[in-house]
# Entry
Amino acid sequence: MDSFRFAFSLALIVCLSFLLLFYIYFRLLYGVKKNREVPRWIYKFGQAFQGRVYVKYENATTSAALRDANIFLFFWLLSNVLSFAFLYYKSGNYYAAVYQCCKLQFLIVLLAMMLHSLFQFFRMTFHSSREARRWYSTTNALSWVAFLSCFLLASFVSTMGFPESPLTAQIDGTKLIVGSTKASSLIDAGFSFAGKSAESKVTNKRNDPFYYGEYLKLQRTENPTVL
# Structure
């Protein structure tokens, strides 16, 4: 149960971080549509994240700030699409490509942040207007929450892993799928378990779904097999 609680807690944190991301964006969208300011904590959150070079971010809920946030989200979406296309072309497996894409979200969002910064640099270089030189705290807050959310998502996916196809075995013409074939089906097929009867109970003493209850010998009268 400890492993389940850990996985559930981590998944909950990932969901909450993405909810915060959506909340910041839709508060910005709502503020621009209704001509209202976003909550001040969003401004402060965006101002708090600084690199080696100090940047004076502008606290503004304007169409320009919304457009800047949309540009970052566009680069994030573009990075995901290109990464998925490459991974799918490489593996040929849709689910494996989705898994790898989720696992690489930390690097993908970093790429999106770099592309957004390069876009800002070129816009400042080729446009002399004051509008082109503005950096918005709302976009900075959005990008760093996205960074945190992707880091948590990548950690969760890497920890949980990707479900592989179940192992199968062929024993005396009977197909056995590990984790799927029931003991009753094996008994009906003529197998028996050494030291156990059809009424015997097998208890998982560790109380953990990642461990089996007991190791048993699966056998027919002439061909015993240990599983």
